[in-house]
Amino acid sequence: MPRPLFFYSDALMAYDMGPQHPLKPIRLRMTYELLESYNLFDTALELVEPSLADPEEVAQIHSRNYLEALHRLSSGDYFPGAYRYGFGTGDNPIFPDMYEASLRYTGASLNAAQAILDGAGGGMVAFNLSGGLHHAHYDRAAGFCILNDAAVAIRRLRTRFARVAYVDIDVHHGDGVQELFYDDPAVLTVSLHESGDTLFPGTGYPEEIGEGAGEGYSVNLPYGAFTTDDVWLQAWREAALPILRAFDPEVIVLQMGTDAHFLDPLAHLCLTAQGWLQAIRDVRALGKPIVAIGGGGYNLTTVPRMWTLAVAALIGVELPDVVPDRYAYRNRIPTLTDHQEVHVDAREAGHARRVAQQSVQQLKQFLFARYNLKS
Q1: Residue range 286-337, pLDDT digits in tens
Q2: Residue 292 and residue 131: Cα distance in Å, rounded?
Q3: Half-sphere exposure of 143 toward its Cβ, with a 13 Å CA cutoff?
Q4: Which tens digits make up the pLDDT trace of 234-281?
Q5: How far is CA 368 from CA 186, 206, 297, in A?
Q6: Distance between CA 192 and CA 211 in Å, rounded?
Q7: pLDDT of residue 161
């Protein structure tokens, strides 16, 4: 029986913004090695080296002027005005060969999308954990993201599928993907994230539901700081998941940022690995083909194990919680799930619950009638 395709090579770690930058490319290698320690590439996954994206296809999502600026900066041509394209900031520093590095992770998402289109690996799920760089805009880099691989992959999927859903469980709002499909009724964007009141990029409110023909096809579920598993899951299952079901996508692009975890340094939600994983399981239960991509995650003890849990869940494999002895980072990552209790102050927990309830109520108000759902 064909095995799901997992697109990875060490060349993906060339997307490196420097030793002081929070986005650490080593997290990809750590995840690959953790999956390997469970023998998944011998038994359940097919490892495939990704190819570079064709710039002409990327130009369907990003402006040619932006791509030319990226190419020039990547080769050392530091022209005046690069800042207007989002480069040269703390979030998006200029680094050598960033053009090729960006085409590679975008190519991996395109490879995964094409695998679904071709029915390769069984045709139900394909992986690119280097992807999920959802903040990149039409002509501007932002939030550690240069090319919007998710949007490029969605465009490829639209060559065959009439309805594509993008589901984003990163702690940051999937603003770039939403923006690029904001007027498109064929693409439903669903984002679960910490509220823009307290976290970058400051967008993703329930009233952002799309415009023109795309009105009703953007779904935003913002949460308050210190949200825990129970509140996060209840809101997802009460408000966003029913809309996703009602839209009935033919294929799903699932962005699996891990930075909603309570140990992540760049945000304020308090999820556990196993709580976060339940949303992955909910998406899989819909029975649709899935292009599974990565996203944020800035604690090196959480990202590899959460992605390993997600990969296992999506391919229907149960893994022992105790990490194999031969895993190089076992002293830092002894188990896949969390065994540490999450302590949240009662006042903060109450506030988080109220924020979630308000978001649920607003989503129901704005969108449920459009999908013939009862609120």
Answers
A1: 999 999 999 999 999 999 999 999 999 999 999 999 999 999 999 999 999 9
A2: 9
A3: 24
A4: 999 999 999 999 999 999 999 999 999 999 999 999 999 999 999 999
A5: 18, 12, 32
A6: 20
A7: 98
> What are the structural domains of the chain?
5-49+105-371 (3.40.800.20)
Half-sphere exposure of 141 (CA within 13 A, CB side): 26
Q: Would you call 135 a catalytic residue per the annotation?
A: yes
Per the residue annotation, which of 62, 134, 135, 261 is the catalytic one?
135
CA distance 373 to 375: 6
Confidence of residue 81 (pLDDT cuts 50, 70, 90): confident
Local structure of residue 301 (DSSP, 8 states): T
Average pLDDT estimate for 84-91: 96
Amino acid present at 362: Q
Q: Is the dihedral of CA 293, 297, 302, 304 positive or negative?
A: positive
How far apart are alpha carbons 234 and 138 in whole angstroms? Answer: 34
C-beta of residue 127 within 8 angstroms of C-beta of residue 4: yes
Tokens of 310: 């997600």
d(CA 120, CA 127) in angstroms, rounded, equals 12
